[in-house]
Design brief:
277 residues; mainly beta; OB fold (Dihydrolipoamide Acetyltransferase, E2P); 4 domains; five-stranded antiparallel beta sheet
């Protein structure tokens, strides 16, 4: 089955001076220009190519990787605005992504960088973008459990914290007390379910909550000490930045973990760092 807006494995059916033609099934033949054709490509071979519609609404192929395929979110820069909408740099040379005015939550301006969801418009069949995410999220009940690891995309910043897209399906919130490291719109990272409220709203954390979090970090500290000869120049006096760079966790959590390891007799805490017993 051919999927426009996705990467497909397509057979080479014809070779021309300017490129090769790929079998795009019900869409006919898709031209892959010479600059994207692998060396020594022959008829009958297959090529992994991204399919899209060009400016004349003809099927086209490229081996370039778009910033976001259909059904995905991506951070894009607005390269132009005209009477029908804004055009974002999609990562495909010569083809920007249209974001119609009707799909803009606020008017987009030239040079602006925004998070965009890519989808196929059912009425026109064209691949377009939108900044109106609500109609694509929270359409199914969430079935998450506490401390479940999830994929996050940072989508918005507000006075409450950072609003994130959870597994491409739901909204979630990271409150300031759970933020560490640098977060920015469009950043993709792993996170954890902190709580699912009775109204279905999801609270998120960037590290496991409670005992599970401490156990994971304690194990990671011991593993790192073993790999580094039993000593690590980090302690409860180290800067939050140094601790985050090594363990991707907050200073408070790190202090609790090494305190627990010390009480268990696993490590000793020295002036210059921690050492395995």
């Amino acid at each position: 089955m051919i999927n426009v807006g996705q990467i497909n494995r397509l057979e080479v059916v014809k070779i021309a001076d300017f490129g090769v033609f790929l079998d795009a099934g019900e869409y006919g033949s898709a031209l892959l220009p010479n600059r994207f054709v692998p060396n020594e490509t022959e008829v009958g071979q297959t090529v992994d190519a991204f399919l899209y519609f060009d400016s004349e609404n003809q099927i086209a192929a490229t081996t370039e990787q778009p910033i976001a395929k259909v059904g995905e979110w991506g951070l894009m820069k607005i390269e132009g605005v005209n009477s029908i909408g804004a055009f974002a740099n999609w990562g495909i040379k010569g083809k920007d992504l249209l974001i119609p005015f009707s799909e803009q939550r606020g008017r987009l301006a030239l040079g602006q960088t925004i998070l965009v969801y890519v989808y196929t418009d059912k009425a026109s069949g064209r691949i377009v973008g939108t900044t109106k995410f609500n109609k694509w999220l929270d359409n199914t009940p969430s079935q998450y459990t506490k401390n479940q690891q999830v994929d996050l995309i940072i989508a918005e910043r507000s006075d409450l914290g950072f609003k994130a897209i959870v597994n491409g399906q739901h909204w979630g919130m990271i409150f300031p007390s759970d933020v560490f490291g640098k977060l920015f719109i469009g950043k993709k990272l792993k996170g954890f379910i902190k709580n699912v409220r009775e109204d279905g709203k999801i609270d998120l954390a960037l590290q496991k909550v409670g005992v599970a979090k401490m156990d994971d970090l304690s194990s990671k500290i011991v593993d790192t000490l073993e790999k580094k000869g039993g000593f690590l120049p980090l302690s409860d006096k180290s800067s939050p930045e140094a601790i985050f760079a090594e363990f991707r966790t907050s200073k408070g959590t790190f202090k609790k973990s090494i305190g627990g390891l010390y009480k268990q007799g696993v490590i000793v805490i020295e002036k210059e760092g921690i050492r395995l017993v």
